[in-house]
Amino acid sequence: MRLKGRTAIVTGAGSGIGKAFAMRLAQDGANLVIADIRNHDAAAVEVTRATGAKALGLHIDVSSEADTARMAAETMGTFGSIDILVNNAAMFSTLLLRPFEQIPTDEWKRLMEINIMGVALCCKAVAAQMRSQKRGRIINLASGAPLKGVPMFLHYIASKGAVIAMTRGLARELGTDGITVNTVAPGFTMSEGVIEHHHHVDFSRDGAIRSRAIPRDEQPEDLVGTVSFLASDDAAFMTGQILVVDGGSAMI
Q1: Of 134 and 207, which is predicted with more confidence?
Q2: What value does the CA radius of gyration of the chain take, rounded to a whole number of Å?
Q3: What's the maximum distance between 2 C-alpha atoms anywhere in the chain?
Q4: Average pLDDT over residues 214-238
Q5: Residues 68-112: pLDDT tens digits?
Q6: Sheet of 136-141, strands arranged across
Q7: Which domains does the chain have, with CATH numbers?
Q8: What is the mean pLDDT of residues 232-240?
Q9: Based on the number of CB atoms within 10 Å of its own CB, is 66 exposed (0-12), middle (13-18) or buried (19 or more)?
Q10: Does residue 9 surpass a pLDDT of 80?
Q11: Is the CB of residue 221 less than 8 Å from the CB of residue 20?
């Protein structure tokens, strides 16, 4: 119960990796806000049934400033604090893998709105409350892909490279208020969304396994311990860092 009495917002937590994060933080004692554009209510009920934690489901589009502001306001109204933000929501599994010249401009723009602006807007929404508390944990989900230059989805790796850069800048801006900002970079993970889209599995799975020091599939559960650590007091003096959790594929 290392997070007992704390409140965590997890974006994109209606399913997949985000729901796994929410489950673990709830097991650690946190109150949970499940922010997603789908399955948010069902996931909140599932978290409560599985862990006994209090959970609130909210329909949130992270690319909307109005939605992210409402997310923070409803979290405060329900739980009275915002202690942890996990920026997990992103476009990935629905993307078609293709040469960069073939990526439509509109897809570039929408992906940047979600994967980059979504992170910035969620951080903006919670910053004032975390500053007033003189305490907070922001955990951004990046990817191992920009570290290795994975081809065929240039807009995605560009967006996750931006998340890494934003993590470092925000760590400098927020550190004096007791707020840490760190990044988790997963490898290719067999989440619900990925399994549903076979083109990602066909393109990436075998090569990802071969590249790892621990040569097996990565599961969402492989990531939750790292997020739990970064959300806790054990990581109070750690900020601006990127933790790569990919079985030893990218070693930095």
Answers
A1: 134
A2: 17
A3: 49
A4: 97
A5: 999 999 999 999 999 999 999 999 988 999 999 999 999 999 999
A6: 55-59, 31-36, 7-11, 84-87, 136-141, 179-186, 242-245
A7: 7-245 (3.40.50.720)
A8: 98
A9: exposed
A10: yes
A11: yes
20: closest CA among 207, 209, 171, 245? 245
Q: Is 111 part of the annotated catalytic residue set?
A: no
Structure tokens at 31: 């109150």
Report the distance separating Cα 188 and Cα 160, nearest Å: 14
Catalytic residue among 155, 156, 179, 200: 156
Is the pLDDT reported for residue 199 higher than 80? no
What are the C-alpha distances in Å from 27 to residues 76, 85, 240?
A: 21, 16, 26
Give the Cα separation of 173 and 170 in Å (integer): 5
What would the DSSP string read from start to end of the chain? Answer: -TTTT-EEEEETTTSHHHHHHHHHHHHTT-EEEEEESSSHHHHHHHHHHHH---EEEEE--TT-HHHHHHHHHHHHHHHS---EEEE-----TTPPP--GGGS-HHHHHHHHIIIIIHHHHHHHHHHHHHHHHT-EEEEEE--SHHHHT--S-HHHHHHHHHHHHHHHHHHHHHGGGTEEEEEEEE-SB--HHHHH-HHHHHHHHHHHHHH-SS-S-B-THHHHHHHHHHHSGGGTT--S-EEEESSSSS--
pLDDT at residue 248, rounded to an integer: 96
